[in-house]
Amino acid sequence: MSQPKQPPTLLLTPGSWHTPASQIYLQTALQNAGYPTQTIAHPTNGADPPSKTLTDDTTNLRHTLSHLIEQEGKDVVLIAHSYGGLVISNAAKGLGKKDRDKQGLQGGIVLMVYMTAFLVPKGKSLFEVLGEYRPANIVFEGSYCHATSVKESFYHDLSPEMLAEAEAQLTHTCIGAYTESVNYEPWRDIPCAYIFCQEDRALGLPIQEMLVEMMRASAPFPILTRRLRASHSPFYSMPMDTAEVIRYFVREVEGV
Fold first, then answer.
1. Which strands form 173-174's sheet, in the order they lie side by side?
2. How many Å separate Cα 243 from the centre of its chain?
3. Of the candidates 21, 12, 20, which has an alpha carbon nearest to the alpha carbon of residue 77?
4. pTM of the predicted structure, to 2 decimals
5. Taking a C-beta distance cutoff of 8 angstroms, is the pair 30, 99 a contact?
6. 67: number of CA atoms within 13 Å, CB side?
7. How does pLDDT run across 61-83, given as a tens digit for each residue?
8. Radius of gyration of the chain from Cα atoms?
9. For the purposes of burial, counting CB atoms within 10 Å of the CB of 48, is it exposed (0-12), middle (13-18) or buried (19 or more)?
10. Are 112 and 81 in contact (CB under 8 A)?
11. Do the Cβ atoms of 126 and 83 come closer than 8 Å?
12. How far is CA 67 from CA 63, 64, 75, 126, in A?
C-alpha cells in the first residue's frame, strides 16, 4: 500500500521591519490545519551596523530551501508579505518542483504565495521601480531604515491590544534591502498566487492589481487570487481567514 502524500512545508517570509514573531498567529493557524510551517528571519531586519542587503536575505532563505528541498526532498510553498516578495522571488531560482521532476529530483517549490507583496521585474531594484513614489512613512538615517506612522500604514484594523503587540516586535531594516536588483521572475516557471488586501494603506489595491497583471502577462500558469478586507497586515487582523485562503491555494495546485 502506498504511503499517503505528505503536505508541503510552508515557509512564511515577513516584510521589512517585521520579525518572525509577527507571523505567529498565521503560523499557528496553518500548523493546526496540518501543514508544517516555519517563519524566516531576514538578516536585514535589525542588523547593526545596517550593512545587510537583499543578497543576504536571499542567501538566508536559500539556505533553508536547500535543506528542505535538496537534502530532505520536501515540497515547499513560499508565502511572502510585502518586501518578502523580493526575497522569495530571488531565492526560488532553480528550485521549482516541475523543473526538479524533469531532472529526476525529489522535492521543490510547488507554489509561491504573494500576500499584498511587492513584485519587481528581473534586473530592477525596489527603489528603481518605486522611483520618486517612495512611501512617506519610511525614514532613513544613513543606511538605517525606519517605519513611522505604523498604525495608519500597517495596522489600522487592529485592536489597541494587538496594535501594541505588533508595534513591539518591529525593528529597523537596512537600505541595502531596496537598492539591489531582483534576479528572477518565478511566475514564468512556478505556479503563483496573490492575496489582495482591499484596505491596504501601504501597498494600495490598485498597485497590487497592477502587479498581478504584470505576472499574468508572462506566466504560463493561471495566477490564483483571493481578496481579504484587511489592512497591510492580515496575519494580525485575520489570521484564520488568511490561513484558509492559503489552504485554498495549496489545494488548487495540481499534485499538492
1. 138-141, 144-147, 173-174
2. 14
3. 12
4. 0.96
5. no
6. 8
7. 999 999 999 999 999 999 999 99
8. 17
9. exposed
10. no
11. yes
12. 6, 5, 11, 28
Dihedral of alpha carbons 111, 88, 115, 224, sign = negative
- 241 grid coordinates: 481567514
Please give the Cα distance from 213 to 199 (Å, whole number): 19
- Answer yes or no: are the C-beta atoms of 27 and 37 closer than 8 Å: yes
Res. 1: pLDDT tops 50: no
Positive/negative CA dihedral, 25, 27, 30, 32: negative
User: How do the domains of the chain map onto residue ranges?
Assistant: 9-252
Q: Is it true that the peptide bond before 14 is cis, omega within 30 degrees of 0?
A: no
pLDDT in tens, 225-251: 999 999 999 999 999 999 999 999 999
> Which CATH superfamily includes the segment(s) 9-252?
Alpha/Beta hydrolase fold, catalytic domain (3.40.50.1820)
Q: 134 CB contacts (<8 Å, ≥6 apart)?
A: 127
Residue 79 main-chain phi, psi, to 5 deg: -125, 120
Across the chain, mean pLDDT equals 95
Q: Which residue has 495608519 as its cell numbers? A: 152
Question: Model confidence over 28-72: pLDDT tens digits?
Answer: 999 999 999 999 999 999 999 999 999 999 999 999 999 999 999
Query: What are the C-alpha distances in Å from 170 to residues 21, 163, 213?
Result: 9, 11, 31
